[in-house]
Amino acid sequence: MGDPWYCGSGDCGNRTFMSGLVDNNGGSWCQTEGVMKRTVSNNSPFQLHQSSCCWAYNTVSQVGNWRLLTHIDLGERSDTSKPNRSPVVTTLPINCARNYNLLSCDPDHDQVRCRYGVFSANECGMCNQHAGFTLDGSTCTLSYANSSTGVYIFELVMEDYPAHIITLNYTAMAAVVRSPFNNASSNPPLSKIPLQFALEVEAPAPSCTKGEYLPRIADVVFSGPLNSKKETTTTGEYVINWTPTSENYGQHFPFCFIAEGQHGFRNYQSEMRCVIVVVEAEGPRAHVTCTKDTMSVSIERATISGIHGDHLRLNNNDSCAVSSNSTHVFTTFSLNGCGTQMEETDEHLLFKNTIVTYDDPNHIITRKNEIEIEVMCKYQKKSSITTMFNAHRPAVNFTERGFGSFSYQFEFFQSGSFRNIREPNSYPLEYSVGQLIYMEIAPVNIVQNTEVFLESCVATPYDNPNYPISYPIITNGCEVDETVHIYTSHQPDVKFSMEAFKFIGQYDQVFISCSIILCQANNPNTRCALGCTNDTQVAPSSHVHKREAAIQTGSHFISQGPLRLRRSTSLTEAISPSLNLNLVFVAGCVIAVVAMVCGMMVYKSRGSKVNYQLLKSEI
To answer: What span, in angstroms and rounded, lies between the C-alpha atoms of 106 and 158?
Structure first.
């Protein structure tokens, strides 16, 4: 990518260049991306070309030079009043016989076509069209089957044609008309982009049937823009991070990824999946401050026009306030509360939350702009120790008409006597499989003449009751898990127990989230009085008229954890290094605000003794 491009025709201007590594796979291959900027004196078309020696030596065909040509047309389009934008494309190494859609996305919604390069037009060096491979030019799909093993060189050209007749206007030359694609060679494209790559055909995989062979994932390989980065969490998730800059506004960026499984020294891959990230415009400007136990966020009101401060909240959590004044919207919340999610990678500890808009649930329309701002504190693991991070969840505060403000605490106990609470500094709690877990949800200060009803409980590997992987424990007040035992009912608190378990796979923690309802004691018209019911339509409001609204509250979530399975040495050694794939990817116009602060902190885990240090502040 660092080799010079030469001007073939037109005013090619002056260039600046930068490059960097995107991804690599243990030295067997790597992808780098170069970004070239050119300053030109006018918007007339120009061409660039590049050539050198040589393609890979272990190719099926003879070794030869490579040549590239690109055609750029900056004329102002009559349909968009902007210069033409070329298609964007990316691809990955592949090794199963199937159709490969060479992802192409055109920002102007033009028709994109692919073809083999032509030697006489300086578009290719070897210009091979290999037997056993078929290229569908209208869909940019490459197919192969029954080809000999080895490395094949493809020198393709990607072109875009307008969907309807348009005019291109220039400052230094007469306007020209461009038409949709037809088979006539005289109909020129708007731009030409070289798409050249080497494809290695290995011995066939035992099976390329989707989901059949090696369901466990050893790695995820991705292709994306410069400065995108892949991280692996300790729970087996692959996270692709990329933060656009101001120069990326209005552009489209492709991300493609595949999952790899291993068998001996061979790698087997899933079908490639691709998405296009559109960087629409500059988003909210925010400042995030992270301490050892809180996150503070301040957002400039001028950058979220059309949004009233009173219409924002944290992670759909009514109890966590977002305040505002004439210039800023701001909030401070605990790393343990307000729906903050914790993720852990080999190098970092991440705490994430989201500021979202909300509306009156009784309305069926809205005229408020919607916004979603993800905020994050990122802490680096280090060996230094200063202060303890407390994973224990604090009491949750609620406010409801007729009941005022009240707080409930979710606690774990040492035994069925419910006398000795598991100390907050002992979290994450460790249990053996099948060991009884004793839990209590109780008010911090008793609200007179009330009882609490345990409506539902669910276990998840993260502190999110709506996480896709979940295990129901209690539903509609009924014990779903066969080991659950509820000790108290129609009391201000609720005590219950169950046997410890672990999620199958590499999830190493469990959170328990429960939904509770506070009712007027001894009132037969409340949800608490109904107890266990299999009627899925039962809801607190369905049994209460408006004049009786104060006899019970709505459903409120409260959670505690994490719990971790106590492993023996032999069990740890038996765990496969292969990880199940849970791909997390954020695409579109979600704004991520990352803050890293100075200081020191420790996250205590009895099993790993891992310590954490905070990073220097950046936005």
So the answer is: 11
Per-residue DSSP letter, 530: H
CB-count burial class (<10 Å; 0-12, 13-18, 19+) for 237: buried
Residue given tokens 């309802």 in the structure block: 517
610, 381 contact by CB (below 8 A): yes
CATH homologous superfamily for the domain 6-204 = Immunoglobulins (2.60.40.10)
0.70 surpassed by pTM? no
φ/ψ of 115, rounded to 5, equals: -150, 165
Contacts of 576 (CB under 8 A, 6+ apart): 216
The fold for domain 228-264+275-386+581-619 equals Immunoglobulin-like (2.60.40)
CATH 2.60.40.10 occupies which residues in the chain? 6-204
CA dihedral 265, 267, 268, 269 (to 10 degrees): 170
Which residue has tokens 């009156």?
360
Residue 44's pLDDT is: 93
DSSP states along 20-53: EEEEE-TTS-EEEEEEEEEE-SS---EEEEEEES
> In CATH, what class is 396-566?
mainly beta
Q: What is the pLDDT of residue 388?
A: 41
The pLDDT, as a whole number, for residue 496 is 96
Token pair of 198 as six digits = 């080497």
Q: What is the mean pLDDT of each run of 10 residues along the chain (619 residues)?
A: 78 80 65 81 92 78 84 93 85 60 79 92 90 87 77 90 93 92 80 86 66 66 84 73 81 83 72 79 80 86 70 70 82 81 75 76 51 81 44 80 84 93 86 91 87 93 78 93 91 93 75 91 91 65 47 88 63 28 26 27 27 35
How many contiguous H segments (helices) and E segments (strands) does the chain have? 2, 46
d(CA 518, CA 522): 12
Choose among 225, 164, 326, 272: nearest CA to 23: 225
- Which residues share a beta bridge with 10? none
